[in-house]
Amino acid sequence: MYLTVLGINHRTAPVEVRGQVAFPPESLPRALGELTALGGIQEAAILSTCNRTELYINQDTETEEQVSEWLCRFHQLDPGSLQPHFYTYKESEAVRHILRVAAGLDSMVLGEPQILGQMKDSYQSALQTGSIDTLVNRLFQHTFSVAKQIRTDTAIGSSPVSVAFAAVSLARQIFGQLENQTALLIGAGETIELAARHLHDQGMGKMVIANRTVSRAHDLAAQFNGYGIELDEIPAHLAEADIVISSTGSSTPILTRKLVKKALVSRKHRPVLMVDIAVPPDIETDVATLDDIYLYSIDDLKHVIEENLRSRQEAAEQAEEIIDVQVDRFMAWTRSLDAVPTVCAYREYAQSLAAAELEKARNQLNSGKPPAEVIDTLSRNLVNKLTHNPCVNLRGAVAEGETGLLEAVRTLFGLKVNDNK
Fold it and tell me: What is the reported pLDDT for 38?
């Protein structure tokens, strides 16, 4: 068996290339069926995200070339255009890579937690399709266990290292649970979308998204059970907001001190967290002088992110040490699989001898022989038959100079022998 990873990711290919080999969820059953139908492939799973597409394969022979050709054929692409972007890992390095991916060590954002959920989705798809068996199934289970250990034993995911996540973390620090809070997000770009996603994941109670193009605001808000408004509607909603996150391309401030002060009066001075991610600023800097306003700029967040990134990098070194140990453990388990056929054959051999002797014993009991005599004969005959072939073969091997077999037998049966006797 050869455990292999064939993939393409954000380190090896630009986004437009990665998009060409992505697998929509609805295409996975057909893809996994085709993949496992290729000659020599016993098991397969596919992980496909915006940053990577990876095939996890258990194969009888080394067939990376036919797998890469299949991947191109499935997506109707020229193999020559993709070949430079592929990477391949085998056996222990394949295990190491998968563990690093699950722990967020191979992600664009170090330690990001979303990839583990995506790997669990990949596992479920393969499980439902029936494209994985003993080896890859055990690999996924081991991967999930190691990823959990890393999250528990290190600080790899405890410190936010993206602007959007840092903003939401500040909200959690100030308000605790967010179920009863209202967020006003100004803008509809990537950072605001990420902030909306993080807030939604944290159970945000109510979300309003304001944008110059109101249709874009509606579309984005609909994903998170919120509603969209135009920028000129902000004064009517500002007093509702416990959290304001703004990131637009406006050349002038959108929130003035006068506007925010008026909203505070309506709020009866309940505190507001404001995070201004825009450059130039969307919120007038002297808004920070108002009581009950916590205003953070992009520079404030960047300082937090830099500190947190250093913390994550230290945690990543600890995670790598955990992975070193866990790769060895998994590979030891895979090596133990080589013994399974021999163990099964030996058990069948012993059971057949026991069955034959048991039949003889029953016949002897039925003929009237004393039970004690029958049991004694059964025991003696079974011992003789179980040890006859091993003893004959061991003597022959030692006579031929294969003395290493002696130590192997002693280890196998846990024997302590006095060689002086």
Answer: 92
Q: Could you tell me the CA-to-CA distances from 304 to 30, 99, 335 in Å, in that order?
A: 45, 28, 46
Q: CA dist 402 to 29, 204, 273, 393, 407, Å?
A: 52, 72, 78, 11, 10
Taking residue 248's Cβ as centre, other Cβ atoms within 10 Å add up to 18
Nearest to 248 by CA among 286, 318, 298, 295: 298
Residue with tokens 């996924």: 140
- Local structure of 345: helix, strand or coil: helix
What pLDDT, in 10s, does the model give residues 45-93?
A: 999 988 899 999 999 877 788 999 999 999 999 988 899 999 999 999 9
The answer as to whether 312 is a domain residue is no
* CB-CB contact of 272 with 241 (8 Å): yes
Same domain (yes/no): 51, 138: yes
Pairwise CA distance, residues 386 & 347, whole Å: 11
**Assigned domain for 63 exists:** yes
Q: Looking at 22-36, 142-156, 196-210, 401-415, which range is the least confident one?
A: 401-415
End-to-end CA distance of the chain: 45
Catalytic residues: 50
Cβ–Cβ under 8 Å, residues 364 and 162? no
Q: Give the DSSP per-residue string, 214-276.
A: HHHHHHHHHTTT-EEEEGGGHHHHGGG-SEEEE----SS-SB-HHHHHHHHHHTTT--EEEEE
- Cα separation of 134 and 136, whole Å? 6
User: 36: helix, coil or strand?
Assistant: helix
pTM (whole model) above 0.70: no
Cis check for the bond before 341: say yes or no (omega within 30 of 0). Answer: no
Q: How many domains does the chain have?
A: 3
DSSP string, 101-155: HHTTTTSSSTT-SHHHHHHHHHHHHHHHHT---HHHHHHHHHHHHHHHHHHHHS-
Tokens in use for 147? Answer: 């990823």
Inside any domain, residue 327: no
Give the CATH number of the domain where residue 13 resides: 3.30.460.30
Domain containing 279: what range?
163-305
Shared domain check, 188 and 149: no
Q: Which helix (H) or strand (E) holds 45?
A: strand 41-48
